[in-house]
Amino acid sequence: MQTEQIHQTNTPTASQTTFESRYASSPGEVKGMDTAQLRQNFLIETLFVPNQFRWVLSFFDRYLTGGIMPVDGPVALDTPDQLKANYFLERRELGIINVGGAGSVVADGVTYDLNYKEALYIGQGTQSIQFISNEASSPAKFYLNSTPAHTNYPTRKIARADAEVVTLGSMETANHRTINKLLVNSVLPTCQLQMGMTELKAGSVWNTMPAHTHDRRMEVYFYFEVPEGQSVCHFMGQPQETRHIFMQNEQAVISPNWSIHAGAGTSNYTFIWGMAGENLDYSDMDFCAITDLR
Asked: Positions of the region Disordered (predicted)?
């Protein structure tokens, strides 16, 4: 349940903000990229630094991927100059999933408590947002996705019990997984942002198989719960011209709308998927036969 009350806090901690823009890349460009260039264009290596907002803007659908880990008290969301806006959500909506310790988000004076793997949607037009950790020794890690928005929909918390849950795959094909649809239009209204979380069962390592593309939407994957010393290999590119990026825990990767997006880990793990584009149809996918991948 969301806590609807005015939250009394001390003066918010002064935060720093890093903001990076990534240009859109065509299949022809990506075909010629080496490992370093692929990582530079698509991999988001660091999202959580104490008291620091870290944002990467992809020119694919102007999708913003970010993170904030408040340690020294409340941290207020500022508005990067690159948005050319009076406040961050003047023309945007925001999705949040907590992947750290217990914390809360204060949106226009209303407090929403977020435990591990709980989500919050904040609608366009919300002017004041603060992020808080319950304990500095176990700080919250708020994973953030933001997209352009055309209208205001109500801010709403989505707990684990509120998610639409689907189980897919099997142990035999090493892709037995639970899909938690959190911020999707079958759960709550949004303009274009969709977010959810897929948890791989023990012994399974493949996600999103068979692979697919969707020209109507781009996507960002955030991998976490990757055990120490293990990695996830993320696959991207056109179905007949694939590329791969090895990723570590709590890293994200941008997936263009023309690209497949799949992964295989050296252990089971969890990932958050976020999408934006011209429709809200979760099943809008152009599947690629596994035997046709190259």
From this structure: 1-27
Q: Which of 125, 158, 191 is at the close of a domain?
A: 158
Which helix (DSSP H) or strand (DSSP E) does residue 65 occupy?
Answer: strand 63-68
In a domain, 146, yes or no: yes
Total domain count for the chain?
A: 2
Query: Rounded to an integer, what is the distance from CA 49 to the centroid of its chain?
Result: 17
CB-CB contact of 263 with 253 (8 Å): no
Predicted confidence at residue 18, as pLDDT, reads: 96
Q: Is 261 annotated as a binding residue?
A: yes
Structure tokens at 95: 């999705």
Boundary-marking domain end, from 126, 158, 190: 158
Asked whether residue 37 is domain-assigned, the answer is: no
Backbone angles phi, psi at 239, to 5 degrees: -55, -35
Sheet of strand 75-76: strand arrangement:
75-76, 129-133, 103-107, 110-114
DSSP designation for 6:
B
- The tens digit of pLDDT for each residue in 211-232 reads 999 989 999 999 999 999 999 9
Are 170 and 215 members of one domain?
A: yes
What residue numbers bound the domain in which 98 lies? Answer: 16-28+45-158
Is the predicted pLDDT of residue 58 greater than 90, yes or no?
A: yes
Is 212 one of the annotated binding-site residues? yes
CATH of the domain at 85: 2.60.120.520
Range list of H helices, the chain = 27-31, 35-42
Question: Is 214 a known ligand-binding residue?
Answer: yes
